[in-house]
Amino acid sequence: MKSVSEVDLLAENAHAGQVDKIGVPYIEHVRAVAAGLAPFGDELVMAGLLHDVVEDTDWTAGKLLASGIPERVVGIVEAVTNQPDMTYEEKIRRITADRSATLVKISDNAHNSRPDRAAQLPEEKRERLAAKYRTARAALWPAASRADVEAIVRIVNPSLLAELDEVFGSSSAPVGGPA
C-alpha cells in the first residue's frame, strides 16, 4: 500500500504539465482538495489527490490498483469521475450515495468555488460555474453532516461558511470537528 507522500508524487507526475482554468499548475488544485480532507484520514486524502487522475490523465482504475493504491481509494476516485453518458446532475446524485465520495466532491467544489480563483475567470464563465457549483452544493451538502461540511470548508474555502446556515439552519452552539 502506498503512503500519502507516494500518492502525492504519483498525482504530481500524472498531472505534470497540466494547468487549471486559471493557468495554475493542476497539482495545486488536487493538493488543496486533499488538504480539505485531512480531518477524515489518509484514504480520503489519497482520494483527494487522485480525484481527477482517471478523468484527466492516462491513468486507469486498474493501473491505480496495480500500483498499490488501496481498493477503497480507487473506488472513491471512480465514484467522482465523470462518465461520458452521464449528466453533471446525475453524477452528483451518484456521488451522494457514498459518504466518502461526497466528502471528496464537497472539497473539490469548495476549492473550485474560491472567490480568488473565480475572480480570474471571464465574467460569463465565472457566473456559469458559480451557478453550477451552487447547484451541486445544494445536493452535496445535505448528503453530509454539517460538521463534516464545515470541517472541509474551513480549510478549503472559508467564504462558503455563510452558506452553512442556509443549508443546515442556524445553530447557536459551536459546531465540532468531523464525526
Reconstruct the topology from this structure.
Elements lengths: L3 H11 L11 H11 L5 H9 L2 H4 L4 H6 L4 H10 L7 H8 L3 H14 L2 H4 L4 H18 L5 H11 L4 H8 L11
Describe it.
With 179 residues, the chain is mostly helical. Helices cover 64% and strands 0% of the residues. It contains twelve helices and no strands. Helix 8 (99-112) runs parallel beside helix 11. The longest helix is centred in the C-terminal third of the chain and has 18 residues, at 123-140. Residues 172-179 have low confidence and may be disordered.
Question: What can be said about this structure in brief?
Answer:
With 179 residues, the protein is an all-alpha fold. The protein is built from twelve helices and no strands.
Number-wise, the strands total 0
Shape: globular
Mean pLDDT: 93
Q: Quickly count the helices.
A: 12
In terms of quaternary structure, the protein is single chain
How far do the termini sit from each other?
Answer: 26 Å
Rg (C-alpha, Å): 16 Å
- Biggest sheet layout: none
> Could you tell me the strand content as a percent range?
under 5%
Instruction: State the helicity in percent bands.
Output: 55-70%
Name the structural class. mainly alpha
* Unreliable residue stretches: 172-179
H/E element order = HHHHHHHHHHHH
